[in-house]
UniProtKB/TrEMBL annotation, chains A, B:
<dbReference type="Pfam" id="PF00591">
    <property type="entry name" value="Glycos_transf_3"/>
</dbReference>
<dbReference type="InterPro" id="IPR028579">
    <property type="entry name" value="Thym_Pase_Put"/>
</dbReference>
<keyword id="KW-0808">Transferase</keyword>
<dbReference type="InterPro" id="IPR036566">
    <property type="entry name" value="PYNP-like_C_sf"/>
</dbReference>
<dbReference type="InterPro" id="IPR036320">
    <property type="entry name" value="Glycosyl_Trfase_fam3_N_dom_sf"/>
</dbReference>
<comment type="similarity">
    <text>Belongs to the thymidine/pyrimidine-nucleoside phosphorylase family. Type 2 subfamily.</text>
</comment>
<feature type="domain" description="Pyrimidine nucleoside phosphorylase C-terminal">
    <location>
        <begin position="419"/>
        <end position="486"/>
    </location>
</feature>
<dbReference type="InterPro" id="IPR017872">
    <property type="entry name" value="Pyrmidine_PPase_CS"/>
</dbReference>
<keyword id="KW-0328">Glycosyltransferase</keyword>
<dbReference type="InterPro" id="IPR013466">
    <property type="entry name" value="Thymidine/AMP_Pase"/>
</dbReference>
<dbReference type="InterPro" id="IPR035902">
    <property type="entry name" value="Nuc_phospho_transferase"/>
</dbReference>
<dbReference type="Pfam" id="PF02885">
    <property type="entry name" value="Glycos_trans_3N"/>
</dbReference>
<dbReference type="InterPro" id="IPR013102">
    <property type="entry name" value="PYNP_C"/>
</dbReference>
<dbReference type="InterPro" id="IPR000312">
    <property type="entry name" value="Glycosyl_Trfase_fam3"/>
</dbReference>
<dbReference type="InterPro" id="IPR000053">
    <property type="entry name" value="Thymidine/pyrmidine_PPase"/>
</dbReference>
<protein>
    <recommendedName>
        <fullName>Putative thymidine phosphorylase</fullName>
        <ecNumber>2.4.2.4</ecNumber>
    </recommendedName>
</protein>
<dbReference type="InterPro" id="IPR017459">
    <property type="entry name" value="Glycosyl_Trfase_fam3_N_dom"/>
</dbReference>
């Protein structure tokens, strides 16, 4: 049918299909569709009006891909068998605690695409709101790890990783931290995700700079050559259940704490990490909004990590505003290069955050304390070793790409004098996305002011980049029609 | 598109549609689709391969119906505005209690089709498991009443109704109770539903006997003429939110107690009832499985009813096995007629249940006690007044139809001697549904034995009726391949 249902598997059948009639299939039934040894469970949509030929059924893009069939293939269709693990979801609905076996069965069925979207929604809803115990979160994390591939870097080898809970546009510290720490000898086979709701993920930014779609063999070779990589994790089937759950979680705007922890830690464990540093920015428009919330998250991350054999350290950081000057894949890549190359005007806030995170990783590695770690990180960056190391990684991944320029640039000017009192992270991210990021790599923003800056009327606040006039206009309409993203405070 | 998505509103757009690109629409986005003053919120499915002409979009059947547009109409499409009441759903996810205003806003948005299926699933999941307080259930009931039409039968007039929580195949007491009680002077404008998961609802059985698709004006006329009606409630927009919630609740097999109570009571209040008798059958394969569960449900039904100004009485009845001999619309209609006409072989269990329920309604009406009520009901049935009254109702609804015979009949024989020790209600219902009920009116079963009967090998257990050989074979395959529906206990 060529229909993208956003991963929900759908089978389309004629209303007068004899199979629908004799088997009693009606719209929204769950059907088992099989071909050879492969089978999927799909939701039925009934099609009236003869759009599908007699004796044929249609499949959504996701169903076609998962079943790996071509048009004209003979399919067998019957009622889906009952999914036993749904009894455990109902058990959780009714307030009971699940054991490891029950959680594993749920995650296995989710991974095998046996759950419909509403079933996943029910599971996520009753697990959110602090309804998962520490043991349940640990079991969920383990089940998500075993749902997919797991990288093994050799017995006793320490593998370092970093993660940011997110919510700050432009906060692209990962390439810097990986370059600094791997220059200092830490092994960091870093796999990152593309943007889900933000204008760029680390994989999007790195994709602007080099090749990131590496298989497991390539990743091993790059890490062998350079001691680190900066790759996209999406093609490696690490914690695949996570991707399926996140899709519904985002749609529901549900950030269940247990789910978040299992999601972050399962990806790290599956990637073979042993030591992970997690950055938790806190601010009114960041993902985590208060210090107590950050502390609770920190303690759960550390405890669940420990239960899974993963050493976790969290750093709670200032999440009041964006970090660096660029927002969007290419603009963030410019900031990363500027810091590594110690260019004039390289964003100091981005550099300082990267150094702070690197110092924590060094301290986790050698236990020499944060002061020593800070000094070591600063030296590695300042004497050019980090930049050389970054070039080594990029060379092993296929070489440095030239950063493109966007077709359309708009400069937005301050309407009056004032001090930048606050910047809304969420709306700023939305603005960059409306301009076309991350689908258009060069689209996004370059901030000309930061928190606390004095501005005078007519001074540029930011530049907006886009690849089409339509996206530029749409973004600017959003900027002017919504509440101000930059709060200018007048002093008198 | 002619696609039946089971009421989820879907808009289909080309992948290369300029609107998708410039507005950043991606699959599963919620879009506002409007035309003139009417608008819907639909889920986007992106269609690849040019099945939709340029400049066009497709709509699911439900979206087309709700928007009331014809092919070729100009539509305006934009991102859906955020649904504010979803914040209350998230509040409930996080374990907080909702107030009346919040619940009303949720129900209003559900009724206006502003919730996606996964959002409804999230709401239902966090309301199930006893997570709704008595006040919340009452607020939910009230909100569901105000979501739709409300019938008014005049100030101070007592309007009687009955309801069965369900789960027993063949338990078609409603037409009998309405005939007996309205013959005794009680006003009973009875509206019923069609089957949702059973082989027949009261509306399906009555549909085999007369016309049930009456509008409000017709119902008023019939009640004026006969003091009662036996109509289908589906076309009257009573508690429409209930229908939208039930659809997802069934798919999730979630029977949230609060939701059940609000569902039952909101329909009765919206229909203008003042006094309702509720039959709660209890048995191992009935909907309610234990006496304590039935008592808890009873107390909540009575309390929520009282808070909404509705007088509710519950009767907890034996739900161990099927009632009557026929299962399926036509076969149940035969039982109803046999009881009313005092035919030889009319099922005594069905008659006795109807008399018992009628006696409770008489007692609710005149307070003369159950003994007096029983005597009154028995007399009305025995002297033919109930049959005359039933004919009066049916005549006012358009006259009695002739009951059809099914094309295929199969007689299943007892494999050995024994006593019928148990009958599985759920599997029996499934068997009748596989035979084609309720879509094929004449399809279903006629039981030849009941609980406790002695049977000898070769004696018929039941007759199975179907309109196609395929459905007959499919039903019989289910019967033989599953655990026995009739447990034959050998005595020695």
């Amino acid at each position: 049918m060529g229909i993208d249902t956003h991963q929900e598997l759908v089978v389309y059948m004629r209303d007068d299909c004899h199979l629908c009639r004799s088997e009693g299939f009606v719209a929204s039934n769950r059907l088992n569709v099989s071909c050879g040894g492969r089978s999927i469970i799909a939701v039925l949509n009934v099609v009236y009006g003869g759009h599908i030929p007699h004796g044929h059924v249609g499949l959504s893009i996701s169903a076609l891909e998962r079943l790996r069939v071509r048009p004209g293939t003979l399919l067998t269709i019957k009622h889906a068998p009952p999914i036993r693990s749904l009894a455990s979801v109902r058990k959780k609905v009714f307030g009971h605690t699940l054991n490891g076996r029950e959680i594993e069965a749920i995650i296995n069925d989710v991974t095998a695409h046996r759950y419909s979207d509403i079933e996943i929604a029910a599971f996520l809803s009753v697990c959110a709101g602090g309804r998962l115990s520490l043991t349940e979160i640990t079991d969920l994390t383990r089940a998500m790890v075993t749902s997919g591939e797991r990288l093994d870097w050799g017995d006793g080898r320490r593998i370092y990783d970093k993660h940011c809970i997110g919510g700050l546009p432009g906060n692209r510290t990962t390439p810097l931290v990986v370059a600094i720490c791997s220059a200092g000898g830490l092994v960091m086979p870093k796999t990152s995700s593309r943007a889900i709701t933000s204008p760029a993920g680390t994989a999007d930014t790195m994709d602007a700079l080099t090749h990131v779609d590496l298989g497991v063999a390539d990743i091993r070779r790059v890490v062998e050559e350079a001691g680190a990589c900066l790759a996209w994790g999406g093609s490696m089937n690490l914690s695949p259940a996570d991707d399926l759950l996140i899709r519904i979680e985002r749609a529901l705007e549900l950030d269940g704490e247990g789910q978040l922890i299992a999601s972050v830690l399962s990806k790290k464990i599956a990637a073979g990490s042993t030591h992970v540093l997690i950055d938790i920015p806190v601010g009114p428009t960041a993902k985590v909004r208060s210090q107590p919330e950050a502390e609770r998250l920190q303690s759960l991350l550390v405890e669940v990590g420990a239960a899974c054999g993963l050493s976790v350290r969290c750093v709670i950081t200032d999440g009041q505003g964006p970090v660096g000057r660029g927002i969007g894949p290419v603009e963030e890549a410019r900031d990363v290069l500027a810091v590594l190359q110690r260019a004039d005007g390289a964003p100091a806030d981005l550099r300082d955050r990267a150094l702070e995170l690197a110092s924590h990783l060094f301290d986790m590695a050698d236990g020499q304390g944060l002061e020593a770690g800070r000094e070591r990180a600063r030296l590695i960056l300042e004497d050019g070793r980090a930049w050389a190391q970054f070039q080594r990684i990029v060379a092993a991944q296929g070489g440095l790409k030239t950063l493109p320029r966007a077709l359309y640039t708009h400069e937005e000017l301050a309407p009056r004098d004032g001090t930048v009192g606050a910047i809304d992270n969420r709306r700023l991210a939305k603005l960059a996305k409306l301009a076309g990021a991350p689908a258009s790599k060069a689209a996004g923003l370059r901030l000309c002011v930061g928190l606390g800056d004095q501005v005078t009327a007519g001074q540029p606040l930011f530049q907006l980049f886009s690849e089409s006039a339509g996206e530029r206009d749409y973004a600017l309409e959003y900027y002017t029609s919504e509440q101000p993203i930059f709060s200018l405070v007048s002093e008198r």
